[in-house]
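Changelog-adjacent note: as of this version, every example in the card shows the full chain rather than a window. The one below runs 204 residues end to end.
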Amino acid sequence: MKGKRSRQPEITPDLLLRAYSIGLFPMADSADDPELFWVEPELRGIIPLDDFHISKSLAKTIRRAPFDIRFDTAFEEVMDGCAAPALDRPTTWINGKIRSLYARLHEMGHAHSVEAFDGNELVGGLYGVSLGAAFFGESMFSRRTDASKICLVHLVERLRDRGFKLLDTQFTTDHLKTFGAVDVPKARYETMLAKAIASPHLEF
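Full-length structure tokens:
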């Protein structure tokens, strides 16, 4: 993983928000590692909200409405799903400290989840942090085909409707690039971030 990292002895929710406002975010080496470190990528992944696109097959699936999409009704359960081992992700960076910090941010109104339910069963979701007019995506998971993808589509629709200016994905992956994710140099990202953070905090 590219990017500067530095150890931080104590991270509070307020410090975490200040870090996001200047382009930093925390990670852990593993779920069992109690320590966190700051990451500041030289290339930052974003999804331009005005250039988001989905495949014809996914659009067809969304029209069938296979899941009940909800917002902020199962935040900690979404974190649990993101932290759980999966075939494509045998280990996780979400440790106990991250769970605690983001649960607190959720209580403060700065961390949010998008959830896909099949009946009463949570089958996919994503979570992230909102600050100003920026949303910082953290992680997603899926237990049904396309569940997390559909959550991402609903996230982008919500961000557009609410007037958000920046959707940060931290890094890009082949999966995210299919939706239009791009890498931007650190200096350009900092300019985009500053404009988004300068805006009044938007309701998610």
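Structural remarks: Helices lie at 13-21, 56-64, 75-83, 96-108, 147-162, 174-177, 186-198.
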